[in-house]
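Researcher: Structure for this, please.
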Amino acid sequence: NHETRLGREVGGHGVEPVYSIQLTDASTLMENAAPLLDLEPDAVVMWGAPTDAVALLGLLRDAGWTGQFAYRFADEAARQGLLTDEMGAGMLGVTSWSYGYPASGSQIFLNDYLTTFGRVPGAQAAAGYDGVWYLRSVIRAVGVRPADILDGLRSGAPQDLVGGTLRPTDFGDGDLIRTAMVYRLRPGGGSE
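Model: Predicted structure, token format:
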């Protein structure tokens, strides 16, 4: 079950979950979250819809809780206007790519995307760009025969692209990269 898996994952780092909420829908989230207020946890980790994360954080902050809130889609919630800069300041998020990633390829992609589409790209846009760019490089190297392309995708040389270094030979299963970027929302907006 999720609680056991979460406990196992973080337990090796000296962290022990003290309360877990697992719901099939968010209709009872607030009533199930009430015990958190009595526990006064150092951190709350949320996995769910952005509106639910913002509602939970609002409940906690309104009650005076000052702990660390982590939500996987923190930057998306902020960009959608669901999360104010003030409420989101210091929130942790995780993604496969963040517009705050300072690598030069990432910043070039960000600027090109902003110029072309007039909005900040998300992780899926960056992954799509990297995938197409890598496919292009393989086709240029091996030609257009499907079997050669497949082999080239699985055995190609590492390439530094938007989301980091693609290393298909490290995985052997078709994955090009396995990256998680943890970021913190800054006061006034944006991430670091």
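Researcher: Any notable elements?
Model: The beta strands are 43-46, 68-71, 92-95, 159-161, 164-166, 181-184. The helical segments are 2-11, 29-39, 50-62, 74-79, 85-88, 104-117, 123-142, 146-155.
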